[in-house]
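Batch manifest line 354
LIGAND: iron/sulfur cluster
JOB: complex structure
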Amino acid sequence: MNILFKNCTAEEIKEKFSAFGTEISSRLAMRIQGYIFKNDSFPSNLTETAPSLLSKINENAIYPNLTLLSKETSQTDMFAKYLFRGSDPEVFESVRIPVPTGKYPGYIICVSSQAGCSLGCAFCATGKLGFKRNLETWEIVDQVLKIKMDSDKPIKGIVFMGMGEPLLNVDNVLKAINIFTEPCGMAISSKAITVSTSGIPDGIRKFINYGKNCRLILSLTSAIPEKRKLVMPIEKIHPIQEILPLLKEYSLKRNERMTLAWTLISGFNTGENDALTLKNISEALPIKLDLIDVNDSSSRFSPPDDDERNQFIDYIRKHCDIPVSRRYSGGKDISASCGMLAGGTTDKGSEPKK
Ligand code: SF4
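JOB STATUS: finished
ARTIFACT:
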């Protein structure tokens, strides 16, 4: 038998061994997982564990590792970008985001869920790569584990905002979250885990029915369907009107506002009509708006200047009674900001329509 430890919770490891006729206690499974997520290695000895049993477990354990191909650290804000290779030649990136505020500084890790992406959002470098493959659970888990081992401060949270659409790989993403939140392992609070989607109905349904208290964010960028289609082709397949009832269900279940992300593109989605159209959504659903300046490596799209951005915020306040915040997206100098992850390549996509 072969059991891939980084693919399983401690309880799943116990069950797998049991299915193959080797009984191990839940406590031992948790101790091994605890050791792995502290040391990123398999224990060669454990107190109170017979060496023969540990050696039998070890013989049946598979312990793959991501290969770190490069790491770059921003000179302006200390964001760090890691380029990894997993079980085949495809590569993917993760970003370590410093959280310097408060009594307990640490890091948030932005992870990838796919190598490449099939959805082709016009403002995103990953979208230009096309879809390569879904990442396996262990490849998602190991991004955080490798970065944790490289870090001087604890990991405080995880955001699925790296390469790929997480809800098109929803089963592996939810399995990875099970592992991240295990108290015996990395022990990351489910409240500190955020999944960002462009709007995949089946995945949102699974996410709603998932038992943990993680947060979902929908990338909207325009509430005008024809406009959204130009930059987010997913609108042609799953229009926002199809997604809204699901978001309402999610929002009711959690008793909180749904966060909608809005990538600000100068001259494209910052006008009064853009705010006015958002009003329809805000009346159907309790929302808050997260504004992110576009980061386009190829300079086809530009972010608004302060005046344009402030004017758009005024329009929102005039037409929609909703909270608005700005998300800082750092690491620009190392192409680690939202929309810039290109798997170590340079984004030289075609001219988008506006
Ligand atoms: S923004 Fe997200 S969903 Fe859109 S192409 Fe990029 S990775 Fe894919």
